[in-house]
Every structure is written in C-alpha cells, then in structure tokens.
Amino acid sequence: MIVVGILQSYFPQHHSGVGFSPRPFRHRVLWSHEQLMQLESWYAADRYPSGQTMHQYAEALASLNPNSYSPTRQNVDYWFQNRRRRDSHPEVMQQREKKKMARTLWGQIMDQRMTLS
C-alpha cells in the first residue's frame, strides 16, 4: 500500500479521477480544410522542414483558424512525420496506382461516349 500512495502522490490523477497518468491529457488536433491545404502545399515544397520553419508554420496555421485550438510546432512535426510515412507505405502506393488507373480508364470511357454522341 505504501507504493500505491507514493505513485498517487507522484503521478497526477487522470482528468476523470480514475487511474494514473504520467502525462497531462492531450487533445487531438483537428485540422481545418484550410490548414490541411496549407500543410499539403508546404509538404510539396519541402518534405523535411527545419524546426524553426515548423514553428513558423504553426504560427501561420494558428492565424488561419483563430477560433480553434492553436497547433504547436510539435503538432506540425507529427503531421509531417505521418505524411512522409503515408507517402512511403507500399500498400498506399499500390492503392494510389489503382485509383489512378481507374480514373484514367473512366476518363477514356467518358471521352468515347462524348465522341459517339
């Protein structure tokens, strides 16, 4: 019981008061459409921005949607990490190729229909 008492005094209670949590509760960042479009354009220009650049990106993203949670440099860093991972995943690349081929095929079918009518 002494160990439990020490742990309770060392770790703060979870926000609901149940269990132990060594970290404070973190909210998930919900990116707005405008923020995502801006992140994608930055990603297209530079897949590996510096820490200083990501800090500037976080400030710019906060100004795009001032009424919501302001993203931090760490949030921007995580977004870039996840985006790079998504780009390099082989299954994702295969799915993209399939979608691209389907769009091309559908476009060819629609072009043929247009020329016939």
UniProtKB/TrEMBL annotation:
InterPro entries per UniProt: HD, Homeodomain-like_sf
Keywords: DNA-binding, Homeobox, Nucleus
Domain of life: Eukaryota
Stored SMART domains: HOX
DNA-binding region coordinates: 24-91
A Pfam match: Homeodomain
Residue ranges of every copy of the Homeobox domain listed in the record: 22-90
UniProt xrefs under CDD domains: homeodomain
Subcellular location, record wording: Nucleus
Protein name: Homeobox domain-containing protein
